[in-house]
Write a structure and sequence with these properties.
The chain is an alpha/beta fold. The protein is about 45% helix and about 15% strand.
Length: about 260
């Protein structure tokens, strides 16, 4: 059974790896044996993630190694440099996780500043396009890409139309690329529900105690809100040999039907 989820010898890039969901993904992929490039704008955060991964696997032969690389996912040249760094450091590229994204602005679409529309699409949608162009020339056979989208890409959320539009675009990019990149590379998307990370707290102007009430109001069949580990576990499955017959899927991971 272990071989189905063994990533030893693989190289993975995870954007937005400095905290929250991205940190959880990078840590679990390394635990499964992959060498991981942790990317984000904040050097302090990705350095902390990298140090924690390397400390966890120091002195043993299990688990992969991590490095960090500062990047701006909305810059196509920066994404090319990120892909090249992975290849230069680890000799190849097998896994790419587009996790960076988000928007801290909530406004009706007719009142949304144009610059916020442009910024949101750049960070959440164009970044995925840039990453694909940067990564694909380096990806080896049986490689995998995972995009982290959102339920907002399926359901309307008043005040977040710009974000929803970007994530809906990611969902369609995934389906299109599955046809264009297969069978060499598989690509899937995860659409998380409510995961109370720092980014979500800021975007929704919520505190920890607010999520206690939200959990009661949602009354999820799973009985709780999500965690970064929930998302990371599905990422691991989608990039592992155990999921070689899954591609082009937009998978809701929300604790509900």
């Amino acid at each position: 059974m272990h071989a189905l989820f063994d990533l030893a010898g693989k190289t993975a890039v995870v954007t937005g790896a400095g905290r929250g969901i991205g940190e959880g993904i990078a840590s679990l992929l390394a635990e499964a044996g992959a060498n991981v490039v942790c990317a984000a704008r904040s050097v302090d955060q990705i350095e902390n993630t990298t140090n924690a991964i390397n400390a966890a696997h120091a002195g043993n032969n299990e688990g992969g190694r991590a490095i960090y690389h500062q990047t701006d996912v909305s810059d196509p040249d920066a994404m090319k440099a990120l892909a090249q760094r992975a290849v230069d450091e680890f000799g190849g590229l097998d896994i790419w996780v587009n996790n960076a994204g988000g928007s801290l602005v909530s406004a009706p679409m007719v009142e949304l500043p144009i610059e916020e529309w442009d910024k949101t699409l750049a960070v959440n949608l164009s970044s995925v396009f840039y990453s694909i162009r940067a990564a694909v020339p380096h990806l080896r056979d049986k490689s995998a890409i995972v995009n982290i989208s959102s339920l907002a890409g399926l359901e309307p959320f008043p005040g977040s139309g710009h974000y929803s539009a970007a994530k809906a675009g990611v969902n369609m990019i995934t389906k299109t690329l599955s046809m264009e990149l297969g069978p060499k590379t598989r690509i899937n998307t995860i659409m998380p529900g409510f995961v109370p990370t720092d980014t979500v707290k800021k975007a929704l102007s919520m505190e920890d105690e607010d999520f206690i009430q939200l959990e009661k109001d949602l009354n999820l069949p799973a009985g709780r809100l999500g965690t970064p580990q929930d998302i990371a576990a599905l990422v691991l499955y989608l990039v592992s040999p155990g999921s070689e017959w899954i591609t082009g899927q937009n998978i809701a991971l929300s604790g509900k039907p």
